[in-house]
Amino acid sequence: MAQDIFGKALLDYQSGNYSEDIITYSSLDEEDHIPLPYLFRDYKKMPSLEQKALKLCKGSVLDIGCGAGSHSLYLQKKGISVTALDHSPGAIETCKQRGVQHTALSGILDFRDQKFDTLLMLMNGIGIVGKLNNIDSLFTHLKSLLRPNGQIILDSSDIIYMYDEDEDGGYWIPDNQKYYGEVVFEMEYKGEKSGPLPWLYIDFNTLQRAANANNLSCELVSSGEHYDYLARLSVIK
């Protein structure tokens, strides 16, 4: 997204120019909206899975895909050392304006030479991997950012419910689809539209198998109310 639609929307809201939300289009359903005020929510308005994730954070934290910086701000106020990372210039500028002290304008795969005790990937942050067959390279890179005894905390969703169910309890998934959690998004804001953005939703069992294959333990911390879950990963010694 060379035009940084997401960042432009965040900066508009931060600057008091809020007039409309981001429209999303996905390969699975019709258009939806991302309400901008929700991206600026405080701890009390966060879903319980996010609240639990923030309580699990320890040591130095890298908030991957930080967006408007709501999670980073909460951790910072708790006295935790946190770096807010995002590839969106507008998101990082928003974080700075909101008072986040440490930021990094970068995609996660280009971010190196620092190590953290906690890597935080909320709001389905692992979706940035795009396709399931990219997850090994992502895990290899994430492990390089972990200090000894470090952890990766992430949430995601099993979107099998979005497919039609047959009489036997199975689901109709197109034959040409490699993994049903692979989705393509486009975003639109104030008449500007992004290019296609591959995004991954990964069910817990698939996440656990991928983690184990990369020498990572994978613990189910909590399950949400609608096919979502919170997981904690760490390097197997």
TrEMBL record:
CDD domains: AdoMet_MTases. The keyword Transferase applies. One of its GO terms (biological process) is methylation. Keywords: Methyltransferase, Transferase. InterPro entries: Methyltransf_25 (IPR041698), SAM-dependent_MTases_sf (IPR029063). One of its GO terms (molecular function) is methyltransferase activity. It comes from the Bacteria. Residues 61-150 form the Methyltransferase domain. Signal peptide: none annotated. The keyword ATP-binding does not apply. This is Class I SAM-dependent methyltransferase.
